[in-house]
Amino acid sequence: MEMTILGCSGSLAGPGNAASGYLLRMSDGEKILMDIGPGALARLQVHDAPGDVHMVFSHLHPDHCLDFPSLLVWQRYHPTDAATRRHTLLGPAITPVHLGRASADTLEDVDDFTDIFDMVPWNAPRGDAVVFPSPEYVGHRIGAARLYAAPAVHPTESYLIRVEDADGSSLVYSGDTAATDHLAALAAGADVLLCEATWGERDNGNNPPQMHMSGEEAGQAAAAAGVGTLILTHIPPWGDPEGALRGARRYFDGPVELAAPDMVVTPGR
Ligand SMILES: [Zn+2]
Ligand SMILES: [Zn+2]
């Protein structure tokens, strides 16, 4: 698989950087968009045609989903690149109502977008322990790829996501989460861990709890999971990317990079 970063600015778009949006091109030709925050759809048009992408949501905070109503407009009405089949949408169970409202004409209305997307709520293990892989861990399919989710720690229904391509490559995306053992469990042996590091080097103690991770915590998760490469993302415009890098490198010996707009990543190569 190949990942193109459309935007990676944390919590909101920044100068020259859209909010969260990651385009995955899979080995069987399917295209999967992970999150579509403000500005991501504009960058998608630079890199690919938006008419034939599947959609995967980590959660529905505005910085991860607000370009979705515009993607619906593209896939419904584009004169030459409208959707020619229903795509898969994997997301929180609240997605049809939440994003249906965002796309509706009146307060009472909920736009039914099942003409474009086949909405499938994430099937994630409940309870304390995430063990991956395990026979009980039922994933989802998009084309030849398999996708798995685990609960994140964040104020709204949120998921950690693992994507496994048929070519054997694997990528885990933290979405937004506070530090959780689920992350290292889901990321076990993955080629790439795309992990948020909103708080910079370390949590300064003044941040809201149950919300985000630091570079140090991202490094700890990468080391515990034994991933190939760690990519730090979701750093806000006021954040401290260099601090996040420093913190992560303190705990993880492998390659650590900062996500950047238009960066192309090929897990497993
Ligand atoms: Zn966010
Ligand atoms: Zn969030």
Automatic annotation (TrEMBL):
InterPro entries: Metallo-B-lactamas (IPR001279), RibonucZ/Hydroxyglut_hydro (IPR036866). This is Metallo-beta-lactamase domain-containing protein. One of its GO terms (molecular function) is 3'-tRNA processing endoribonuclease activity. It comes from the Bacteria. Transmembrane segments: none annotated. Residues 32-235 form the Metallo-beta-lactamase domain.
